[in-house]
Design brief:
The chain is an alpha+beta fold. It has one domain: 60s Ribosomal Protein L30, Chain: A, CATH 3.30.1330.40. Helices cover 21% and strands 27% of the residues. It is built from two helices and six strands, in the order βββαβαββ. Strand 2 and strand 3 form a beta hairpin. The model has no long low-confidence stretch (mean pLDDT 97).
Length: 126
Amino acid sequence: MSRTVITSQKAPAAIGPYSQAIKANGFVFTSGQIPISPASGTIEAKDIEGQVRQVMANLDEVLKAAGTDFSKVVKTTIFLADMNDFAKVNEIYAKAFPKEPPARSTIQVARLPKDAKIEIEMTALL
């Protein structure tokens, strides 16, 4: 079994003992991304729309570093602090998957790291 740690300087560094992503046996498994700006190291967007855009940008960079992209994502999991944001999240998220979107789960959680409104993790093919 082949296992490679993926790191992108264009995405925020891990804030704990984990990797941004792991490449293994033809798949890429990303860690959950919260809306931290890689430039500042903080959550700059206060609204859900801005936070979703930052999370998707972070994931795009991690996937690129692994040699893949959104078109090869097979499964996502979205963690929301407030399920009332579901429709707004869908509007922005859908732009990354204009056709044949991946399987997905969306879960409301009590709290996310750094009090983010959203966290997304992905599994993609290489």
